[in-house]
Specification:
It contains 4 helices and 4 strands. It has about 120 residues and is of the alpha+beta class. It has a domain of about 60 residues: Guanylate Kinase phosphate binding domain (2-Layer Sandwich). Strand 3 and strand 4 form a beta hairpin. The N terminus is likely disordered.
């Protein structure tokens, strides 16, 4: 005997979600640009930022030293390895990775604030 077809929403288990509600009405929209180093993420993000003042960009945390012309808090938050580990271990980073021996991560609170 075949089982009855599941309703279109039967697989959802999002806290606070109700059929007919709009999650986007309560939260912003996040666009993630991910690609290898040098593929053009910065160029694309600058163009998007110039097109729409509602778009914001999260500033990543890194342990690498600043490059010429980079500003702390604008291009990256430059921190020590110990501070990065503290942020990671306390759950203050949404994600983190090691790239070319340096640590990078996305601060949770900045993204939460932008989506509000």
């Amino acid at each position: 005997m075949a089982s009855p077809a599941a309703s279109p929403t039967s697989h959802f288990s999002l806290p606070g979600w109700k059929p007919g509600s709009s999650v986007l009405a309560r939260r912003g929209l996040m666009l993630v640009l991910s690609s290898p180093s040098g593929a053009g993420k910065t160029t694309l993000s600058r163009r998007l930022l110039a097109q729409d003042d509602r778009i914001t960009m999260s500033v990543s945390v890194t342990t690498r030293p600043p490059r010429p012309g980079e500003e702390n808090g604008k291009d990256y938050f430059f921190v020590s390895v110990e501070e990065f580990q503290r942020l990671r271990d306390s759950g203050e980073l949404l994600e983190h990775a090691t790239v070319f021996g340096n640590l990078y991560g996305t601060p949770r609170q900045a993204v939460e604030d932008a989506l509000s």
